[in-house]
Amino acid sequence: MTRLGSALATAIVIVVGIITFLGLVVGSSLGGLSTVINAFAFPTIANAFLQLTVITVAITVLIGIVNLVIVHLGRVFGRGKPVSQRINSLVLVVSAIGVIVLGVLERAGVLTGSPSPTTVLLEGVQVSIESALAGLVLFALVYGAYRLMRRRVTGSGLLFTLVLLLILTGALPFSTPAMRTVGIVRDWLMAVPVSAGARGILLGIALAVTVAGARVLIGQDRSYRD
Amino acid sequence: MTDDFDKRPPDEEPEDDFDWLKDVPDDDSSSSRSGDNLGFTGELSWRQDVEDAFDDQLNEANADTPDWQQTDNQPKGQPGKSGNLGFTGELDWLRASGEEAAPEANDTDVPDWLARMDLAQSSPPLDETPDDGTDVDDSMAWLQQDDEFDAEDELEPATLEDDAPDWMQDLGGLRASDEGELQTSNALPDTGALDWLQEYAAEPATDEPEEVDEFELPPEPTAENDVPDWMAGAYDSTPAAEPTSSLFTDDLDSESVEGTTGTGELDLPPWLMEDTPAELPNENDLFGEFDTGMLREAAESEYPPAPAIPEAAPPEEPEEPVVKGRITDWLERESEIASSKIEQDDFLNTLPEFTSQSTGEFPVTGELPPTSNEWFDESEPEPFDAADGVPDWLTELQDQGDITVDEPVQAGSAYDMPDDDDLFAGLDLGDAPPVEQAAAPAGEFFNTGELRNIDDILSSYKDIETGVSDRTGNLVNQADFDMDSLLSDDELDKISSLRQSDERRAEMGDISPDAPDWLSDIGVSVGSDDVSAAAIVRKQAQNERGLDELSDQLQALHQAGLDLPAPVTNDAPDNMKALLIGVPEILSPAPMRIGKPALAEDLVLSASHREKVNLLQSLIATDDQTKEPQLSAIDVTLDDSPDLDDLAGTSTRAIPVITSTRKKRGALPKIDRLLIAVVLAVAVILPFVVRGLRIGQLPPLSFAAGSAQQVAFDRVANLQPGDTVLIAAEYGLTDAAELDTTLDTLLRHIFSRGARPVIVSTNAIGLLHAKNVLERGVVSGLDVKDGGTDSTGNIVVSPGLGINRFGRIITLGKDYFIAPFIAGDTVGLRDFSQNIGGRLATDYNGKPTNLQITSYNDFALIAVIAERSDDVRRWAEQVAPLTSNPLLIAVSAAAAPMAEPYTVGSVNGMLVGYKDAYTYRAILEAQAPLAPIAGSTNIPTVVPTKPPTATAVTPTATVTLTPSITYTPSATPTITRTPTITRTPTITLTPTVTNTPTATATATFTPTNIRASDLPPTWTPTTLPGGSSDIGGQGLLITGVVNVSDAVNVRDNPSRSGKVIASLPARSTVQIIGRNEDGTWLQIKLEDEREGWVSASLIRINEPGTGTPTTPVAYNVDENAHVSLLSDSNYQPIAVNLQASPSPSPTLTPFIPATLAAPAAAPLPAQGASIKTTPYRDQRWYGMTLGLLAVIGVITLGAIINIVRGLFRRGRK
Amino acid sequence: MQSIGTWAGNVDSTTQLLTIVIFFLTLVITIIVTQFVRRRRSLYTLREIAAFQRLPSMIGEAIESNHPVHVSLGNAGLGGESTLVSLANAELMYQVTRRAVIGTAAPIFTVGNSSALSLAQDTLRRAYASRGIVSSAPYSSARWYPGGGHSLAFAAALTATLVDDKVGANILGGSFGTELALVGYAASRRNQSIIATSDQVEGQAVAWVISDEALIGEEVFTAGAYLGESSSQVAGVVVQDALRLLLIIAILIPTVIALGDTFLSGRFGAALQRLLGGG
């Protein structure tokens, strides 16, 4: 993109960003600032931007579907692709198109019935498949924890495993005195270190997001420049 | 701010690192440019060129490659690492060029580089040897050698017309590019290459031997391609080593060097006579392939490494020692060796140092880089690997987790092949041509005796190899066989027989005096004539153990920019002298690899070479292996090239002891994976079928008073008919198993209150799924057959229907609504909030909802059922501020910890996971049947009517059936409380009561506040007419229900030691007639009038039946008396709330708490209500419990295993 | 004019003011620090992050073994609260791709949020453009697998991709939940190296377990600084650290006061008030 284009894009980003931000943040209780902001109808403009965003995001689903079909048709008919790949992609494309058609027909009232065909598909296929996968998630997680220190035995690995075991044990529904003690420890772990760490991470992410947003607004982010 | 991107200082844009790449001459096609930018596509295509040749030879090559791999404990790269090995040289080149590019204006650098390349093509060879005063004699000797070599060259074309030209052409090309090599190597420092290179650059190429030697020292890896030479030198150790050893005896002088070279030359002719013919054909193939594979690349100059290749190739350049690539460097070093043993010592020490360095660094590196080595270490090969025709030795690698499925086979092996052909074929395959290739340089630079010797070795190797390959036994065996065979009688005989030749004799005569000393130096206990490289090396390895201060030096090497190795260690010289002839040539280039322009190394570095060098080093050095920095093209194109320590450490950690444990390594993960899967599955499933495995306690049947869960329940219970409830089903199918029960239960409760749920979601799948749960789970569960319709058409459900008593048929669009999917996550939700009325005007099908919603405040309750804390946060941030009603949230157990903070403020009431859903459901199921609720206005009729005696309190009875407000008159202060709700059971007991004549009697009963403490621990109830027990003469019938899914024992006394006299089936109702002092055991009366004791924790006590439907009668029950009858788990003290409020009479206070205390203390089927229990509710819980135990066991086991393994591994290191 | 249905309409003016102040403070700090860092680049050395150290060699290994590099944004997308997470991961994606472009196997992008598809394709274009071979950018390498939060279907699609395309290295950024475990498991079975992170706590925990090197929290936002050598990116990191310090102080001060009051029964606060001349 030319430098002019970059400058233009950056200018647009900055203007839209600032307007949206002020429009959303500034209420009616900030005296002069509110007056100015509202005088320029920033809130209205901001909401308009938001609705545009929502619409755009919804439209991207269409782009996604096109991409999905193109990519996987390419994998089906592309040269030198392994059979397994062709089959996977073929199934994916066919089922995707099939469901779309089904949904359209159902909306059009061509297909009726209770439960509706899409419902049957959802419950009969997707729910069951994802439920099976959910079971695999448990297995994958357990296996990951099982082999956590197989790479190397580190302090953090040991600590992680210890806490993990404590928390799991504390979740056991036994009411022996020992288990009650573990339960207390578990509650403390969950309430203090775990949530503290988690919130620390979230705070860090929030800070980074703020800075990233600022960088975008002042045109330091290259993503839309070239 | 905008100038920020307008300016774009060079260092700001990452592209800068690569800008120079764009400066590649225009004739490059973009694709090829991308390739030669980082030199991969070229490499890959080059690999393609030799792939056929490789395939043909791979089978043979495999026969010996495994030997090396088996014999050495050399680092096995992980996926791509083997390929990486092959590339490292190139990567180094890239590193050089990358560092070239990084610091300063790149566009200036590369043109330089390219220019240099061009220059290299045309510039005359630099001859620095003459300038080197100390080397004059040597260079003289070499010139002699060279002459002979020329004659030798003459010979070859003579015997082979068609090949010789190519070969000579190659030489020409090589010569030219060699100069390029020189240029590049000299240029490197200018371009910000590694510091040591800069230092080297600071010295003119014609520097003192030390300088040059220093330059030689660092590069160790390139040693690989010298292996053959070394083997040659070491193999015919006696003749070849003798003179050299004298070089290294402390009283070394240059004459002895001349002697050495001189004697060496004498060997040449016979060798040529013997071997040349046999070699030529293969040699042609070799160079032909070499030509197509690399030189053509170089010619195209599409791809920087390519030009490099020729530079590495030209061993046959006697002149221009420095100008040469590595090989000429050996030449120079050889001369320097002759002139200065210190330098030799320096170099020689670098090897053990470098290797021991890896040991020193291991702990450090253990932390940092590619942990994947270990990670992959245990992962078994893909099933389909075998199908890829992976050679055993590569599969071996893969089993180490170091090579990915099948590509590495191509990559690694492909990279290896050309180098193998060029330099190692002699060793690997025993092919003559490689011998020629390897020997020729040796012949030039060193003594020609080496040439003959290497030939001997190679031929002997060939014998060995064939012998091995014939057996095709275990690789390890091959390795052992290989090394042992070096000392086998056959070998020694072969060697000695070769040395029986006349000139050999004469030669021996000349140098025989040295031989014993030298041999004794290294303690090789073999005849002065017959000694094998293996013997020497083996001895060497023994002598060398213990060198370990090298970590410091390598540290310096890294941090100071690969500085010169520190001075020799004391014992190093003697050790290394033994290997003098072979070792320097072989091993000195290896250190060069790091940071050296990879032009030379591209040719020589390959996985197999590396393996071979590691073998040598493993024999020469200590127990650890030389670190091979796993540099990738990417690293070297960046400024921040990875810490060599880490890289080295990586490879160090990656060093697998390749033994026959391959099967084990491959199989173990499969086994433990399988076992874990089976254990988990069985643990979860078994409790469904095996009663004995149903361990652990079921969730409580009631929430703790005041808990977030109780608050949630009460908020739903407070809904009024006709209320609209917003349900956000923010969970997908992942957590459906956990949250479906919650959603189902909440919906049932909401419907039971006559409220209307509106379901929304920002998760499309979640929305559809919630719709299904509602329609197929709740609505279709409505069983209207239990009731009739009243005059208004509303279904009147008679009491005692259990949970399905919504009062009327639930229909979409009237009793519940499915809103359109909210797209756009948070922004979408915010947008939804902006005009919620419009968004809810139509449902997901576009049909009008007729909902009169203008803001969130129009919802009586907003419940968010979320799988992630983020969903809760989204609603708490975007919606909670917009409504005066705090949210009610139900989250998965995983999201609970992070969602909990929101329960303060924006959220009021929280349900967590299946456990709370279980309890919630249990409360609903335990509730007495509700009267039908038809819409929000109809007050249904209830049959049977209340007994006349109840007229005094009729309002109460009537009112309690309607919204609690109207209850106000009688239960003065406490009416407005949720207690009203939980009281309904009492009222609906009417049927039972009215049938009891004692009702009237007790109705007139004057309440007396009898405290449990006033009662005897056990008492004998007097049975009143009607069969109800009179506790303390109060005419109360107290029953309880077995509250576990299994039968419980009835014992003859209140202790576990008591004798079991009977067994109560699960869920059976029993009459309670007493308790022990602490209320932990209850005395019951069996149907056969026998009395026994049951643990109170197993019995849920029903609210005492009273003689009247009116509440006052119930007041007769003393709170403590009642409470004391409750099992600990069921008693939830809530009296606190109530005692604060004034009570009309002292007897009012106690009962309400008692009732509230146990919401579960409600009529059970015994009272005639049909309760629909969630299927497998308990089994599911037990399955979770046992599964949890299994998970804990598995993780604990894994931790123990891995810790032990870690300790063992560390100990091994 | 804010209707009662908006954030600003439901937040007190102090919060509004604080929000504005914090945001513009961040803007100013970012601008100033950026200029300063660009002039004094050498002053700032980034602490080592194992994942970023490992990344280049990881990609190199994949390339050298002719395996594609797989980068996934998970469910992160544009337009939502994960917009900036998407942009940050796009930068990581860009840096990775610029390195992976040299391989014969084109890098593979997978996104679960259709709004991120365009971002991925543009990142692909920029990366190839940075090599001067934008014409050969394989846009079909950016793939959308319909996901949704915690979508196991998406995870399953990634698993299939790892197998079908014989991926060599996985960089899993963006937004993942526990389903990340499936991907990590599949990758580890195939000896594929992984660098993973997630802006969700659940996913972050899983990432730590299953990856060779995990990026924690905001580290993914520093990819440009670590891999791109851009001084403005480095400035972003410096700003982050500066704000982090401010945040820590902001948390510590009330904590200290509260503790002091607890132990000194309120006298601490009173003393502070006198000291600061408060009413």
| Radius of gyration of chain C using CA atoms only | 22 Å
Strand order of the largest sheet of chain B: 5-2-1-6-7-8
Mean pLDDT of chain C: 85
Please tell me the overall pLDDT of chain B.
52
Largest sheet of chain C: 6 strands, parallel
Structural class estimated from helices and strands of chain B: alpha/beta
**How helical, in percent, are the residues of chain B?**
55-70%
Secondary structure category of chain C: alpha/beta
Give the CA-CA distance, first to last residue of chain B: 55 Å
β-strand number of chain C:
6
Structural commentary:
The complex is a heterotrimer of chains A (226), B (1213) and C (279). With 226 residues, chain A is an all-alpha fold. The mean pLDDT of chain A is 84. Chain B has 1213 residues and is an alpha/beta fold. Chain B has 51 helices and 17 strands. In chain B, helix 4 packs across helix 19, helix 10 runs parallel beside helix 16 and helix 21 packs across helix 22. The longest helix of chain B is centred in the first third of the chain and has 47 residues. Chain B is elongated. Chain C has 279 residues and is an alpha/beta fold. Chain C is elongated and about 70 Å long. Chains in contact: A-B, A-C, B-C. Chains B and C meet through helix 2, helix 3, helix 4, helix 5 and helix 17 of B and helix 2, helix 3, helix 4 and helix 9 of C.
Please outline what is shown here.
The complex is a heterotrimer of chains A (226), B (1213) and C (279). Chain B is of the alpha/beta class.
Give the key terms:
heterotrimer; B: alpha/beta; 6-stranded parallel sheet; 5-stranded antiparallel sheet; 17 strands; 55% helix; disordered N terminus; C: 279 residues; alpha/beta; 6 strands
